[in-house]
Specification:
This protein is of the alpha/beta class. The protein is 36% helix and 16% strand. α5 links the parallel β5 (125-129) and β6.
Length: 374
């Protein structure tokens, strides 16, 4: 049997190899391969320009900036967060000895519902950790209002939100700190990598100490820091990939548009539209399957797609609150999180990335159309 092409949910954006080789030669010649080298500094500068932010610290992955943000702001006790995310969001709290308190999501944005935060606040609450899920902006103003009223910090997990703007402004300056992931599966990648965006030079300085074991000088350690550094090779790769990310986002936008047009009239399938005044990055294309009107269940469609070599992903299923570490917490109970539970049981993220051909996209669409009411 002919080996059929796999249509994957994502594919890494790789810069042209011939453009990368001169950077490697330069790094080999200089023999400065990590520890805040020239390419590390250049990537931070270029990212500030591209993302329209003032202060950024780059990291070796997207989980360490979350952990470091919590340390930098000395967050303790309880933090309010969403169950509808990748596990790293909540794990960063747990690793810091902080109790996550889960609050349900807004059915329209699928982000933390700002109207439900207040009821979850206790004397131990010190911060809110929302996620811009699929790169769709949270209700930044409403979350800030609650935080201000109760004196809470806000750390945004913006892992999906590379390059996302609202009203012409980066959403990465919302709250106290935002973090990004540059993992291979994300819209922009440095293979593994990530970043932390903060709002003043003092915080940036402290973050830079913390990501380098707490070293503030040759023999001075000011905090129990960690090793969060990214090397020169991946920094150079990141500089190159910045040239190609706009093209990649544009291709993703075209695919999202085609999906929306083709699935508009498929009963039982819904999707999210663009938000007003938002520059999206089209990092994911989630669809939601309503079994009673579509005809087969979400999981059945997911399996049918796989039989045709189409590999969607059920992001985010199971919910974080279903995993053994967290399921015993009071706030993890299903009745506390009806919307998150409903969405998690109906979602499939369709393949979306710049290497997809239009016939790949049509194949995905045909599969979904074909199984309607089977
Ligand atoms: C990818 C991701 C992370 C973790 O990033 P890594 O770079 O894989 O460590 C954190 N939060 C969310 C929401 C993510 O999607």
């Amino acid at each position: 049997m002919k080996e059929e092409k796999q249509i994957l949910v994502t594919s890494p954006l790789l810069p042209p190899l011939e453009e990368f080789i001169p950077y490697l030669e330069d790094i080999w010649n200089r023999k400065w391969i990590t520890n805040n080298g020239e390419y590390h500094q250049e990537l931070e500068k270029r990212l500030c320009e591209y993302l329209k932010v003032d202060y950024i610290s780059i990291f070796t992955n997207g989980t360490l900036p979350l952990m470091t943000a919590l340390q930098a702001l000395r967050i303790t006790g309880e933090v309010i967060t969403t169950p509808y995310s990748f596990v790293a969001t909540t794990h960063s709290l747990w690793w810091n000895g902080i109790k996550p308190v889960f609050v349900d999501i807004d059915p329209k944005t699928l982000n933390l519902d700002p109207n439900k935060i207040e009821a979850a606040i206790t004397p131990k609450t010190t911060a809110i950790m929302p996620v811009h899920v699929y790169g769709n902006p949270c209700d930044i103003k409403a979350i800030q209002d609650v935080a201000d009223k109760y004196g809470l910090r806000i750390i945004y997990d913006a892992a999906h939100a590379f390059g996302v703007q609202e009203n012409g402004k980066s959403i990465l300056e919302a709250g106290d700190i935002s973090t990004l992931s540059f993992h291979a599966t994300k819209t922009y990648n440095t293979i593994e990598g990530g970043a932390l965006i903060c709002k003043d030079s003092k915080t940036k300085q402290r973050i830079d100490y913390l990501k380098n074991f707490g070293f503030a000088g040759e023999i001075e350690v000011v905090a129990p820091g960690i090793n969060g550094k990214i090397d020169e090779i991946r920094s150079a790769y990141g500089i190159l990939n910045l040239k190609y990310v706009d093209g990649a986002i544009e291709k993703r936008r075209t695919i999202a548009q085609r999906y929306r047009e083709a699935l508009k009239n498929v009963e039982g399938i819904t999707y999210m539209n663009d938000f007003p005044n938002v520059r999206h990055n089209y990092s994911y294309f989630p669809i939601f399957v309503d079994e009673s009107s579509y005809g087969i269940s979400r999981d059945a469609l997911y399996e049918k797609m796989k039989e045709e070599n189409i590999y969607g992903r059920r992001y985010f299923y199971p919910l974080i609150t279903d995993f053994s570490t967290y399921r015993g917490l009071d706030s993890a109970k299903k009745e506390n999180l009806p919307i998150a539970n409903k969405v998690a049981s109906s979602v499939i993220c369709l393949p979306i990335h710049p290497d997809l051909t239009s016939s790949d996209v049509e194949k995905v669409i045909n599969c979904i159309v074909k199984w309607k009411s089977h």
